[in-house]
Design brief:
Largest sheet: 5 strands, mixed
Strand order of the largest sheet: 6-8-9-11-10
Helix content: 55-70%
Oligomer: single chain
Radius of gyration: 46 Å
Structural class: alpha+beta
Length: 397
Amino acid sequence: MKGFNSLRSKINLVFSITLLLLSILFIVAVRYDHGKVEELTLAQEREISHYLYSYFLQYGKIDEAYLEAQNISVITDKDQIIQIESYFKDKGKYKRYAVDTYRLKRIILINNDRFKLILENKNKATFPLKRALIFSMVFLLILLLYFWIIKSLKPLSLLKTKIKTFSQGNLNISCASDKNDEIAEVANEFDHAVKMIRELLHSRQLFLRAIMHELKTPIAKGRLVSEMLTEAKQKERLHSIFERLNILIDEFAKIEKITSKNFTLNLKPYKVSDLTEASIDLLMIENPKQFIQLEVKKDYLLNVDFELFTLVIKNLLDNGIKYSTDKIVSIIIDSNKFEIINHAEALKEPLENYYKPFHTSQKGLGLGLYIVKSILDIHNLGLSYRHEDGKNIFTVA
């Protein structure tokens, strides 16, 4: 019954049932009228039979003028009489009085001790034109009402399409309406909300980009100044601070790009091994083989955005190295999944908690898994976690 949850389906169901009941009512009414006419006709035919018998007893002949006035004719053709008698005999109706239809003709058989007559009743039941006109008008009115309601729901379908487009990241939509119904009110309110969200997102983007732009210059100058220091300890401390600030700005830029949804995915098929190699290069560490062990059991293709997905693997590798006890992380590529494994303590909280931005972290900004989860969601992929034999195992599939 899932299909009947929509408003359009419910309207279709209601009107279908209404029209069906109306049609049944019309058929029942016509049959009732036909039954009443048939009952009246049978009574009249019996009265005619009694009259003819009484008249014959009195005058010794058939009152043909009366029959003509009643629009009833006497069948005199011998061949036809034989065929009709045979027909009545076959049906077991060859009696003193019987009525039946023979070749679309209503035949009256009178076979008493005085005379035998085969009559044709030419009176036809009239079509209930007035009743048919009334039912047709009601039927047409219901149809017009149905199409009027369906037409009034059309803006709702358009609004649904606009909302779906908006949910996919397209903020350049307009769904304002000049109508005066409730759907128009909803459309206008949603249009107002879209404009407000668009302005807020634009302001946020300008704010973040302005901050990142303004901070890049003093950070670069600070790093240059720190290089001029002679004391190694102070130099290393300042260098670490500026490096951390630079990483923070880069993470903000990535978050802004992912969450704004104002970008188009450039999806292409890539081997997971190639994506992994590119991600290792992004780590910019000397002698990566010392820290990262790659095992390809069975390589496979992933249809992904290269720039974003390498960031997923890079963040997982970076976290694996940071939090491992031996600073070594393993990557195992097998069929339709790849796993990133390191020797470390089990996560203290459920994995879902680490998806929150700026999650408490002693060795990072708490943004790594948030970015990973956001990018995987865009690609309709999932991340799972388990701890076995002193190892943390993250699986992307």
